[in-house]
Amino acid sequence: MRHFFSIPAVFAGVFVLSACAESGEQTVERAFQDVNVIDESNLNDVMLTVADPNEAVTYFTRSTKANPDRIDLQRGLAGSLVRAKRNTEAVAAWTKVVSMTGATNEDRVQLADAQIRTNEWAQAKSTLDTIPPTYETFQRYRLEAMVADANKQWKKSDSFYEIAVGLTTAPAGVMNNWGYSKLTRGDYAEAERLFGEAIRLDQSLFTAKNNLVLARGAQRNYSMPVVPMTQVERAQLLHTLALAAVKQGDTETAKGLLRDAIATHPQHFEEAVRSLQALETA
């Protein structure tokens, strides 16, 4: 009798061991799946930030073909296209993202950004208009200001720039944009002030330094501003100031500034040389 009961017991033991083995395999498989998700997430982040933009486009194109319904991968593709400066394709990609389930207001902001990059100002305004006013981010108001500038809605533009400045810890870039807006309106003194603020916040912002010189030149102030600059930057700014003087009709002043630019530059300054030759032979 003992033998009859031992056989089912053996089978029971086998079943238990089999069940344990199966459970263990499932646990290991789940663990590997979790690791793969983590690895993929890290890889996506790398592709969106430090990878070569065109390599990132290739990666996300392949990934979206394999998983067309995953909005995170579609976002990755759209963002990579922007980084690669393939802006027309980026507009199409962001348009697809905002049509998907799970699309956010930030996705719409990114679509508007891509539309501005392709000079689709009316479409960008329409996209921004779909975002509720309660969604307040720096990027949203920066784009709103740019659209208002394009439409010459100066009061709106100033209001949006002011809000954008208050929503970021690094406002130098938007200060420079705001100053350029003032420059295009002919408000040169205010433009000069805003460019100065931008440089104070970010001394490496050469675009703001160049714009500052343009604003001073438009007021026939041809003295160099007291801002941090390298020798090469000083030569380039003297050249810009000379061109501003030409625009004002102050040709002799422009010649002097160009000679200073050529003498200041540590290498041969071909562009300034050509400008000076053109003035002297005119």
TrEMBL record:
Q: Which PROSITE patterns match?
A: PROKAR_LIPOPROTEIN (PS51257), TPR (PS50005)
Which keywords, in A-to-Z order, does the entry hold?
Signal, TPR repeat
Q: Gene3D superfamilies from the entry? A: Tetratricopeptide repeat domain
User: What start and end residues bound the annotated signal peptide?
Assistant: 1-21
SMART domains referenced in this protein's UniProt entry, alphabetically: TPR
Q: What stretches pass through the bilayer?
A: none
Return the InterPro entries for the record: TPR-like_helical_dom_sf, TPR_rpt
What residue spans do the TPR repeats cover? 172-205
- Can you say what this protein is called? Tetratricopeptide repeat protein
Q: Which domain of life is it from?
A: Bacteria
Q: Which SUPFAM superfamilies match?
A: TPR-like
